[in-house]
Amino acid sequence: MRFPAEHPLTIVKLDPVGRVVARYPGTIHPAAPGWIAIVADWQLGTVEVGPLRFEPGDRLIEYFSFVEPINAFALFAPDGTFKGWYANVACPAYLEERTLFWRDLYIDIIGAPDGQITVLDEEELEESQLSQRDPEGYACILAARDRLLTALRTRAYPFHLYG
């Protein structure tokens, strides 16, 4: 399904077991083949995650892969200043009608403008006991984390766009 730029969509975030945890509006932004990019405004209060601070009025350009198990959000202050990357290990995104769904898979990674990289939530993955329940799924999550770290360090798409 292809949509023109500026086309409105609803974005739905699912937790690792598939429950809806967030739903918000966005508009389509140009992206590379195999990806969809969405512009969305931060609608929650102030949230600090590692070295990154999300605040009311911030704008995100969110890059979702339809192939790779990752996504990445470029965060900007209201004045346009780039604040950093927030990336997720996730199932590949999918579209249904005018809704984009993505399923978060525990591990998050922050890329600061100064190049510092912070990996978050590895303990949450361990606490899930996925390594015992689904060793193959667990290994896939770790492999996706490693690919995401490499993409950040080498500034592969979409990380070469900002920062």
TrEMBL record:
<dbReference type="Pfam" id="PF04167">
    <property type="entry name" value="DUF402"/>
</dbReference>
<dbReference type="GO" id="GO:0016787">
    <property type="term" value="F:hydrolase activity"/>
</dbReference>
<dbReference type="InterPro" id="IPR050212">
    <property type="entry name" value="Ntdp-like"/>
</dbReference>
<protein>
    <recommendedName>
        <fullName>DUF402 domain-containing protein</fullName>
    </recommendedName>
</protein>
<keyword id="KW-0378">Hydrolase</keyword>
<dbReference type="InterPro" id="IPR035930">
    <property type="entry name" value="FomD-like_sf"/>
</dbReference>
<dbReference type="InterPro" id="IPR007295">
    <property type="entry name" value="DUF402"/>
</dbReference>
<feature type="domain" description="DUF402">
    <location>
        <begin position="52"/>
        <end position="154"/>
    </location>
</feature>
